[in-house]
Design goal:
Largest interface: A-B, 28 and 26 residues
Largest sheet of chain B: 10 strands, mixed
Helix content of chain A: 10-25%
Largest sheet of chain A: 8 strands, mixed
CATH topology of chain B: Rossmann fold
Helix content of chain B: 25-40%
CATH topology of the largest domain in chain A: TIM Barrel
CATH superfamily of the largest domain in chain A: Aldolase class I
Radius of gyration of chain A: 20 Å
Structural class of chain B: alpha/beta
Number of domains of chain B: 1
Radius of gyration of chain B: 18 Å
CATH class of the largest domain in chain A: Alpha Beta
Oligomer: heterodimer
Number of domains of chain A: 3
Number of helices of chain A: 9
CATH class of chain B: Alpha Beta
Order of helices and strands of chain B: HEHHEHEHEEEHEEHHEEEHHE
CATH superfamily of chain B: LarA, N-terminal domain
Distance between the termini of chain B: 45 Å
Structural class of chain A: alpha/beta
CATH architecture of chain B: 3-Layer(aba) Sandwich
Shape of chain A: globular
Strand content of chain A: 15-25%
CATH architecture of the largest domain in chain A: Alpha-Beta Barrel
Number of strands of chain A: 19
């Protein structure tokens, strides 16, 4: 369900936006929660992770791009700007997409099945996947998209009123609005909500570690298992993402991984096998891995949708490598949408797309053999 | 990778005479490869007619014609909608001056272009206003506004870039002029005529690695630009040799030149030489030694967009 401006304002009405106002650097006529923002006059905040350099330059220390940014310029994300030697984020509380989604849509399959998440995004991304499904917000600058003022407290108020038990920073790339993620997660946690993040994991270690304690779950899009793919299709790097996966897992934050299989580019049996083996060896066999179906979009329109047999082969290969929970996505009705007990093989949760048809989980255990099924269940 | 052209791209190609020979525009004068016309204009000259005279001389020098109006009439016709893309990022102290822009607008009008079809534009109206321009979407001696949110809805690929282009270059205009300044750029090395076109793509922040190379040249060779670009004008009365692309006072120097060229690559090569000369005078290292040489000039030369060989550059002082 997409929230329009009126509905967002109603949901946010109970929010104490005023408590945040001292933080705004450019006051002027302060935006109110739910206000449509003027793209040329966005509220800004000093960024939390950067270093000042000589000559009014700055070095961003948020993501591995580590952009060196001159005065009046922006980093590769397009949402952080150097103004006279001080680096600002232009997207704190500047939400361009706000929806209440099933948590299965993220997808999280081991996080409070059947519940909803107040899901939000700003413009911008620190990479450029040629197959980006959300390029109309991720590949644009904040002043180029329609956005609303949604400070953390107002977001929490909106989530509560909608009945959502979770929040999700998602759609574009939460790393580029990491200060907003941090503050929204803190507000959500204080209000008894579970904050989650859906990200590419392309982030430096320090900012990741600072925010992880606030999060209940983290989904990482692992784009492929080769540097070539990351370089040519993503304009990013694989190695920092693998490091992030380990950092998240070691921090004890619930982790799920999504791999979009793009025909001919990252779908070989060998690559899937190496990826699954890496997860089993460096993370844990119980980390869910979702292989999802590619559909042609953005700059990659010359390839067909991923054939179903290719996805099913990936499922078999990953299971053979010892992974306990392997799913197939963008295939509504496929049996690989379900959660099966790794011990007895019983169906624990039956799904159809984002719907829960049956949940036989009993206090986090298989109803049949009583084996613990890992996840965030309550 | 071959790709089906969109209708809009096809129209742009046809407008440039690259398809089927159906030339929609009136350009009759071919690019004078490697030639840059340069005219002096003193930074301290209070004479209100000086910018106009400098522009006229620079156009004559660039095009080898007797009068500027004659030269411009060979490039632009009554059927053209002419877009002048300014670079106003550095604010009022290092943007094309309104008085010089208006001198060119007047000359275009004298050459037969309808004032209603002359559009002075930048990526945002805010930047134009900061640089001293008045926003006008109708009426007045010329139109003047920012692209703001007027981007194409679909991305278009050119070499390594994939971007939504400003409607002014994809749709509205049949002929284009790059109207920039002469300044240092911390990543690209030089920001003059070619780098100015980063302002017509929605995602320039994605294309600043490897000194913006080959990206600047890739933007330039897209049919929306390469098929319509007729002229490059550089307001070099003041220039900046370090600390760019934003305004940086200590880097400013009084160059006192207005440069015009039908060859966009040659214009940038000239700007590069000017910047290096001033840097040398000040004892600053070369751009190359700072690992930010504008290699996109060589790439653009390789694409056949103009002349980037210093041996072939011909500066005509007018």
């Amino acid at each position: 369900m997409k929230l329009d401006r009126r509905r967002l304002a109603v949901l946010a009405a109970g929010g104490a936006a005023g408590a945040l106002l001292p933080g705004w650097l450019e006051a002027g006529e302060r935006p109110q929660p739910g206000d449509l923002l003027d793209g040329e006059d966005l509220p800004v905040r000093e960024a939390s992770w950067y270093k000042k350099l000589d000559g009014r330059k700055v070095e961003c220390q948020l993501c591995p791009q580590a952009c060196t940014v001159a005065d009046m310029e922006r980093g590769t994300c397009g949402v952080r700007e150097n103004r006279d030697g001080i680096y600002y984020t232009l997207v704190h509380s500047v939400a361009c997409s706000v929806h209440v989604d099933p948590i299965e849509k993220k997808p999280f399959f081991h996080v409070m099945p059947g519940e909803t998440a107040l899901s939000y995004a700003t413009a911008g991304c620190n990479v450029e996947c040629k197959f980006c499904q959300n390029w109309e917000i991720s590949q644009f600058r904040p002043e180029q998209v329609r956005a609303y003022h949604l400070p953390p407290d107002a977001m929490v108020a909106a989530a509560k009123r909608s009945g959502a038990k979770l929040t999700a920073a998602t759609y574009s790339e939460p790393v580029v609005f990491w200060e907003y993620v941090r503050d929204a997660a803190a507000a959500a946690r204080s209000a008894g909500l579970k904050p989650t993040v859906v990200s590419n994991g392309f982030i430096q270690d320090q900012p990741l570690k600072e925010v992880l304690p606030l999060l209940s779950a983290f989904k990482v899009d692992l784009k492929a298992f080769t540097e070539t793919f990351y370089r040519e299709q993503v304009r990013g790097e694989l190695e920092p993402v693998l490091k992030s996966l380990q950092t998240i897992h070691r921090a004890g934050v619930w982790l799920e991984i999504v791999v979009l299989l793009v025909p001919t580019l990252n779908d070989s049996e060998d690559e899937v096998r190496r990826l699954a083996a890496w997860v089993a060896e460096n993370l844990d066999p119980s980390v869910p891995v979702h292989f999802t179906r590619f559909h042609p979009t953005y700059r990659l329109t010359n390839l067909p949708p991923t054939p179903v047999p290719t996805l099913e082969r990936a499922w078999r290969v990953a299971k053979a490598e010892g992974l306990d929970f392997v799913y197939l996505g963008n295939l509504p009705g496929h049996e690989a949408e379900n959660t099966y007990c790794p011990a007895c093989g019983e169906t624990v949760i039956r799904r159809l797309g984002f719907q829960i048809l049956e949940n036989r989980l009993q206090h986090g255990h298989c109803a049949g053999c009583k084996r613990a099924i890992p996840g965030v269940w309550s | 990778m071959s790709r089906r052209l969109s209708r809009r791209e096809l129209v742009a190609l046809m407008g440039a005479g690259m398809v089927g020979g159906a030339r929609r525009s009136a350009a009759r004068i071919a690019m004078r490869r490697g030639v840059v016309g340069v005219a002096g204009e003193s930074p301290d000259d209070g004479d209100p007619g000086a910018p106009r005279r400098a522009m006229e001389r620079a156009v004559r020098g660039a095009m080898g014609v007797a009068t500027a109006a004659e030269g411009l009439a060979g490039l632009f016709g009554p059927s053209d909608t002419v877009g002048l893309k300014l670079n106003c990022l550095a604010g009022p102290r290092l943007s094309p001056r309104p008085v010089l822009v208006e001198a060119l607008v007047d000359l275009l009008a004298e050459a037969g272009v309808s004032r209603r079809k002359i559009i002075v534009f930048e990526r945002s109206s805010r930047e134009l206003e900061r640089a001293g321009f008045k926003i006008r979407r109708s009426g007045g001696p010329y139109l003047c506004y920012g692209t703001d949110n007027g981007w194409d809805r679909r991305p278009s690929v050119s070499g390594a870039i994939g971007s939504c282009f400003a409607a002014e270059v994809s749709t509205t205009c049949s002929a284009l002029i790059s109207f920039g300044v002469v300044k240092d750029h911390d990543l690209a090395g030089v920001s003059a005529g070619m780098k100015n076109w980063y302002g017509v793509i929605h995602n320039p922040n994605k294309y600043h690695d490897t000194n913006c190379d080959p990206y600047v040249a890739d933007v330039m060779r897209h049919p929306f630009i390469a098929g319509k670009l007729r002229l490059t004008v550089l307001d070099g009365v003041h220039a900046q040799c370090q600390g760019g692309p934003a305004f940086f006072g200590p880097g400013i120097f009084p160059l006192g030149r207005v440069a015009v060229s039908t060859d966009p690559v040659a214009a940038d090569l000239w700007a590069w030489q000017i910047i290096e000369k001033e840097r040398a005078r000040r004892g600053l290292p070369t751009l190359e030694s700072e690992q930010r040489a504008p290699n996109f000039i060589a790439t653009a030369t390789g694409y056949g967009l103009g002349v980037g060989d210093p041996e072939s550059l011909r500066v005509v002082k007018a």
